[in-house]
Amino acid sequence: MGIEMRNLTKRLGGETVIEGVDLSVRMGEILFVVGESGAGKSVLMRHVIGLHKPDWGSVYVDGERVDSLPEKKLYTVRERCGFVFQHPALLDFLSLEGNVAMPLRRRRGMGGTQAAEEARLWLRRVGIVDEGSRFPDEVGAGVKKRASIARVLALQPRYVVYDEPTTGLDPVSARRIDALIKRHAEEQDVSTIVVSHDLRSLAIAHRVAFLHRGRLRATGTLDELRASSDPVVRRFLLGGNPQSTEALATQDDDICYSYRRE
Amino acid sequence: MVIEAQPHRAVFFLGRTAVGVIRTVGSMVLLGGRALSGLRRPTWPAGELFSQAYLAGNRSLLLVAITLAFVGMVLVFHACIQSQRVLGEMSLVGPAFLQLIIREFGPTIVALMIAARVGAGISAELASMVVTEQVDALRMNGADPARYLVAPRLVSVWIMTVALCVFGCAVAAVSGAVTANLLFGLSYDTFISFSMTRTGDLVTGLAKASAYGFYIPLAASWAGLSASSGSEGVGRATTAGVVVGSLGVIVLSAVIGAAVFGLGL
After folding, report:
1. Which of B137, B142, B143 lies nearest to residue A89, judging by beta carbons?
2. Is residue B51 included in any domain, yes or no?
3. Does any CB of chain B come closer than 8 Å to the CB of residue A94?
4. pLDDT value, residue B4
5. Which spans in B38-119 are helix H?
6. Rounded to the nearest 10 degrees, how much is the dihedral formed by the CA atoms of A171, A174, A176, A178?
7. How many CB pairs under 8 A join A and B?
8. What is the full DSSP assignment across A43-59?
9. Which whole-number Å values give the CA distances from A262 to A151, A242, A257, B23, in the listed order?
10. In this structure, is residue B14 part of a structural domain?
């Protein structure tokens, strides 16, 4: 049981974005999928919930092949597998509470009052219950992000995929999100996949998968990756350490890092 | 320099265009079907129908009024001059103008205004929802975007388009009558005469207004939901919504006109 991707390949706009990726997440595990921007991390994860169909390969959720399911049958997969989008993706015309309550009404069949109570409970759990009556354009990025997480967690899925949950947030908000992800994974025993290029978040990972130019370059614990002899992996992990800026800048094989000197 | 004819390129271009048109029409029909199936059990938020109707109808009143007032003035001005020159009198200008406005110009010009104003708004709104992943979030939450987003827009814009077409025809008739009276001394009684307007003209006008009212939000929604990522994608989708909407109005006008003519109405 769990989520498994086998030999996944995806082409978008004439370019191969994902190539031959084999990846799985075990029950109760926090798996981080890391890589530079444009490495194909988000595209890879959208295959899990059927928002992308692979050109080659297959995706299994709880042993059921999901990549060939029609849209209607994907609803059951999406009930089991929550997805926190990179953008908060809150509906502008609903309050934060309304955004969290909406899937509870649609998916759990709750009445308006019950869904609103449950929504407030989850907003409290993510620490923004006082903001519940406000609309998405009235609150900051961190609050929106937490509301989008509450919307997903309220359905109590067995798996949760977070797509860059800390991108664009200040360090305090980012660490708060990390703590929230870890606490929920431990308390509810859910499998968690976090797509990120925020290396400071790796502290909460059980296992890390490193994606480079659409290919899975390395997997293992954070310590195993740190001990890797692969120069691409080492360079990426060094990028998260401010003391390594000088070392990175002296490497002459990739000009994209040279701006760090300035 | 010798320019060689390259017929295969022309064939390739025509074939690609035909495939594109068929694909566009096909995906629009599918979207419309899904949206209409959502009308059996509405799932959109309470008040959405009224807010969309307000945006499409009330907020377009001034634009439609000004446009149709000027169209009425210009058409009647030229019609009076020509009528005076050719026939030596202007008694038929009013009846002919009213028939033309009800049957053709009123609904079509109002629809073009709605395609530009309301269609652009729908395309841009839905496209920005696509690029900010709100549409994906809806799908994740078990809501079909066609039923949740497109259906209420379809219903409200359809009702308001028909209403605006009637309103636009009335404005054009009044402005035309005022122009004929002030500039050419034609009495209001002579001008406002429905002697040339038959039931078929009314049916044609209403049929066109209904068809436009259904087509414009559908084309705009299709363009918005087909948006690619980024602000550039929103811009392209908005342009596509207006272009496809306006072109469709012209094509529908010709098709309905031909069909009505064929039926002998």
Report:
1. B137
2. yes
3. yes
4. 65
5. 48-56, 61-86, 93-100, 106-114
6. -130
7. 49
8. HHHHTTTTSS--SEEEE
9. 41, 13, 10, 51
10. no
Name the residue among A63, A88, A89 with its Cα closest to residue A77: A63
Residue A35 region by backbone torsions, left for phi larger than 0, else alpha for psi between -120 and 50, else beta: left
Write down the pLDDT at residue B3: 62
Q: Give the total number of structural domains in chain B.
A: 1
**Residue-by-residue pLDDT tens, chain B, 265 positions:** 556 667 678 888 888 888 988 988 899 999 999 999 888 888 777 788 898 999 888 889 999 999 999 999 999 999 999 998 988 888 899 999 999 999 999 999 999 999 999 999 999 999 999 998 899 888 888 788 999 999 999 999 999 999 999 999 999 999 999 999 999 999 999 999 998 889 889 999 999 999 999 999 999 999 999 998 778 889 999 999 999 999 999 999 999 988 988 887 7
B140 contacts in chain A (CB < 8 Å): 49, 78, 82-83, 103, 152
| pLDDT tens string A202-234 | 889 999 999 988 899 989 998 888 888 888 888
Which stretches of chain A score pLDDT less than 50?
A: 241-262
Q: Enumerate the residues of chain A whose CB falls inside 8 A of the CB of residue B133.
A: 85-87, 89
The pLDDT of residue A249 is 42
Here the ipTM equals 0.72
Please tell me if residue A69 touches chain B, with a CB cutoff of 8 Å. no
Cβ separation of B136 and A51 shorter than 8 Å? yes
Range of the domain at B147: 45-263
Q: What is the pLDDT of residue B40?
A: 83
Q: DSSP secondary-structure letter at A192?
A: E
Q: Would residue B26 count as lying in a domain?
A: no
Chain B: residues touching A (Cβ < 8 Å): 43, 45, 48, 132-134, 136-143
Mark yes or no for CB contact A89/B136 under 8 Å.
yes
Determine the residue of chain A that is closest to B139 in CA distance: A75
Is B165 among the domain residues?
A: yes
Contacts of B134 in chain A (CB under 8 A): 87, 89-92
- Residue pair B253/B200 in contact (Cβ under 8 Å)? The answer is no
Could B141 and A90 be called an inter-chain contact, meaning their C-beta atoms sit closer than 8 Å?
no
Tokens of B27: 């995906």
pLDDT of residue B33: 92
Q: Which residue of A has its CA nearest to B51?
A: A93
Domains (ranges, CATH) in chain A?
3-228 (3.40.50.300), 229-262 (no CATH)
Residue A141 sits at the chain B interface (C-beta within 8 Å): no
Are A20 and A9 in contact by the 8 Å Cβ rule? The answer is: yes
Specify the pTM. Answer: 0.79
Q: B136 and A106: CB-CB below 8 Å?
A: no
| A78 in reach of chain B (CB within 8 A) | yes
